[in-house]
């Protein structure tokens, strides 16, 4: 799948598999990544 210049909304992306997906999507050229999660602290720690 070609992900260059794509935009992604990822729910549950602050820990575990979701966090790994965020890193992988960034490496594959995703243009914008929006991450949602229940706990604010892990989300704030992810600011890229």
Structural features, described:
There is one protein chain. With about 50 residues, this protein is an alpha+beta fold. Helix content is about 40%, strand content about 20%. It has a two-stranded parallel ribbon. It is elongated.
| Order of strands across the main sheet | 1-2
Please mark out the parts with pLDDT under 50 across 5 or more consecutive residues, or reply none: none
Number of continuous helical runs: 2
What is the average of the pLDDT values?
A: 88
* N-C termini distance: 24 Å
Total discrete domains = 1
Major sheet details: 2 strands, parallel
Number of strands: 2
| Computed Rg | 10 Å
DSSP strand (E) fraction?
15-25%
Query: H/E series, N to C?
Result: EHEH
Helix content: 25-40%
Compile the SSE list and pairings.
Blueprint: E1 7-11, H1 16-27, E2 32-36, H2 40-45
Parallel strand pairs: 1-2
InterPro entries: NAD(P)-bd_dom_sf
Protein name: SDR family NAD(P)-dependent oxidoreductase
């Amino acid at each position: 799948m070609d992900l260059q210049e794509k935009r992604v909304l990822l729910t549950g992306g602050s820990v575990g598999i979701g966090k790994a997906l965020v890193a992988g999507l960034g490496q594959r050229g995703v243009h914008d990544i929006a991450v949602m999660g229940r706990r604010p602290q892990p989300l704030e720690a992810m600011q890229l």
